[in-house]
Amino acid sequence: MSKIKNIFQNSPISPLFIAESITKHSTKTEIGAHHIFLGQIRADKVENKTVKAIEYTSFEDLALTQMTAIREEIFAKYDITCMHIYHSLGVVNRGEICLFVFTSSKHRKEATLACNEVVERIKNELPIWGKEIFEDETHQWKINQ
């Protein structure tokens, strides 16, 4: 098994961080395609209350171990050059980015398929939970969709 990479940040993922991550790949001339997924907090309405933020928590050690296995499976399945994953912990306000997945490959199909599968597996397999915080300061656990 490869080295465990920390995917977690204790804050929203900033647009500057995303831009810098993309810029770092301009020198990698074997790459012909990037696929990027950005998960952003919506101002959902739930029972006439509006979401103002989501507070993310995780069983980090297990999540990182599982993410390492997922990374290995994705690299074995798709011909991708690189994959970067960042997920927020703590409070992320509406309009802010909580998930950044970035895959690169020689051709777009592989980057797209790999990125989509990674996002689905993060949502379905990792022990990460979100608590919706409403404008009136009440809260409830979020159900992934």
Give an account of the 3D structure.
With 145 residues, this protein is α+β, with helices and mostly antiparallel strands. The protein has one domain: Aldehyde Oxidoreductase, domain 3 (Alpha-Beta Complex). It is 31% helix and 37% strand. It is built from 3 helices and 9 strands; from the N terminus they run E-H-E-E-E-H-E-E-E-H-E-E. A hairpin with a 4-residue loop joins strand 8 and strand 9 (139-141). The chain is globular. The mean pLDDT is 94.
List keywords for this structure.
145 residues, alpha+beta, Aldehyde Oxidoreductase, domain 3, 5-stranded antiparallel beta sheet, 3 helices
Task: Give a nutshell description of this structure.
The chain is α+β, with helices and mostly antiparallel strands and about 140 residues long. The protein is built from three helices and nine strands.
